[in-house]
Amino acid sequence: MNSIIRSALVTASIAAMSACASIGVAKEPAQLNPDNAADTLQIVRKIYCSTEDNTPIVYSWNGKALSRKQGEKDVHLFDVEGMNIRQCGEIEKEDGTKGFHLVSREILLYLDKDTGEVLKTWDNPWTDETVEVMHVANDPVNFKMYEVGRGGKPAKWQGEMHGNFWWQRNTVPLWYPSPLASKYEKEIGGTYHSTELFNFFGNVDELLDPSTTGVEATVGWSRFSDWLPWMNMNGREGMLYMHTAGSKLASYDDLSETMKTEIAQSYPEYSAPPPVGDDRKNMTSWEYYDQVSEGHIELPKR
Questions:
Q1: Please, which residues have CB within 8 angstroms of residue 300's CB and are 6 or more apart in sequence?
Q2: Within a 13 Å sphere around the CA of 232, how many CA atoms are in the beta-carbon half?
Q3: For the chain, which end, N or C, has fewer CB atoms within 10 Å of the first or last residue's CB respectively?
Q4: Does 18 score more than 90 pLDDT?
């Protein structure tokens, strides 16, 4: 073989092996670290909304509402279907601490347990009264999160990872003066008392990949609370609990036809989230009832 050709082949072979070796030792992209405060903000944003500012995200869920009374069997009263449309935006405190602001509004519909139709009225089995149903339309439902949390401690993701699955539990006990109570809460009992339970689930690789702006996620939501005000239970012993499951949707169009119809006809503003920077006081279902009763909010006509 010609020496020039032999030399050229050797040089090409060395170059090829060098290229393969270089590929073989190439580092994988760094993963987000749940123990790092800045990475925690990204992780939480990817679950709740998106790391891209002003990107609307929709969650949807559905399930059952049941009664719990001493000495009685639990009763399936009606079904529920909910949605929350939200977006996030980066914020910063005066001292330079970074964070994000989640702004959202949400609907919870009460449905006939047999037909799935949106309820206009409901027959109370304990009072034999037919009452008008007041669906939930809370606007806004916002919160802020920073790299430094309460007590001056760095933010740290509270979820768990097992294999390639992650989950996050949020237990939210609520205990505060009811918007519907008198000034004598401690004397006669007028404190709003409930617990909301959230479970989020997803894929670890997607969650920790710094190149993704969001994750696919499923959600479970339960609530234990007093009877709903519109049920007119008049202080009867017992409580209501709801058990639901759902997911983050690919788009608004993936909402059920029932929900999209309700939004189009009765809640048109719920097709988009509030603007980032919304500084209004959060709305709750009990506060909503009070605002309607006082004439500050008009219920949609059905």
A1: 265, 266, 267
A2: 14
A3: N
A4: no
Amino acid sitting at position 50 = S
Q: Is the pLDDT of residue 21 over 50?
A: no
Residue type, 67: S
Residue 217 in contact with residue 250, Cβ under 8 Å? Answer: no
C-alpha 28/C-alpha 33 separation (Å) is: 14
Q: Are the C-beta atoms of residues 215 and 207 closer than 8 Å to each other?
A: yes
Question: What confidence category does residue 22 fall into, taking pLDDT thresholds of 50, 70 and 90?
Answer: very low
Report which DSSP code applies to 275.
Answer: P
User: Which pLDDT does position 171 carry in this prediction?
Assistant: 95
pLDDT-derived band of residue 155, with 50, 70 and 90 as boundaries?
very high
Nearest to residue 38, comparing CAs of 202, 206, 153, 156? 156
Among 75, 186, 54, CA closest to 122: 75
Are the C-beta atoms of residues 243 and 223 closer than 8 Å to each other? no
Above 70 in pLDDT, residue 1?
no
Place of tokens 């790391």: 51
Beta strand segments in 211-263, E: 218-225, 239-248
Q: In the structure, how many helices (H) and strands (E) does the chain have?
A: 6, 12
Give the chain's length.
Answer: 302
